[in-house]
Fold:
Amino acid sequence: MDVYNVTEQYTELINRQKQTLQEAKKRQGQRPRDRKSREHAYGKFMVALMLSGNREQKHLVHSSFVPPAYLPCTTPMTELRHVAIKDLQLETHHRGTYLLLRSITPPRRMTAIMAVMEDKNGDVIMLEPIMTEKDHGVVFTCFTGFPRLKSRLRGGICLALELSTQFRLL
Structure:
């Protein structure tokens, strides 16, 4: 029986991911200056979606880092303040706020079900729920409480949803 040893590849991958997490911590509290335009985010996402159906999935590793535990936001929904994507800071829980978003792409499953979302100002962000099993359809509108921007392991930034109570379909 032939065995393909991938230990070295996985060790290298984990080391790169650790480095990315350390770099993300350094940017905590900053407003991202590297946000993409609606057209760029849409085009890149759709190309990746189309190509993912044609790719042979040999030795593919999906990984996701779960953040440290934190207390949920207990502010009643009626007291939450609206916030725009442009106002969010990296690696910060925006307690007492909410985002109202609509998807501009169909969902794509990787380690989570992801989609490119837009707010009422036309700013876009990748939505990346950590613990999601359900595909919410082709286009959806959602409410997300106490949002948090995080650095993605593959580069760029995304809106992380770590608790199921943060997300509501409208």
In short: The chain has a mean pLDDT of 78. The domain at 7-52+75-169 is CATH 2.40.50 (OB fold (Dihydrolipoamide Acetyltransferase, E2P)).
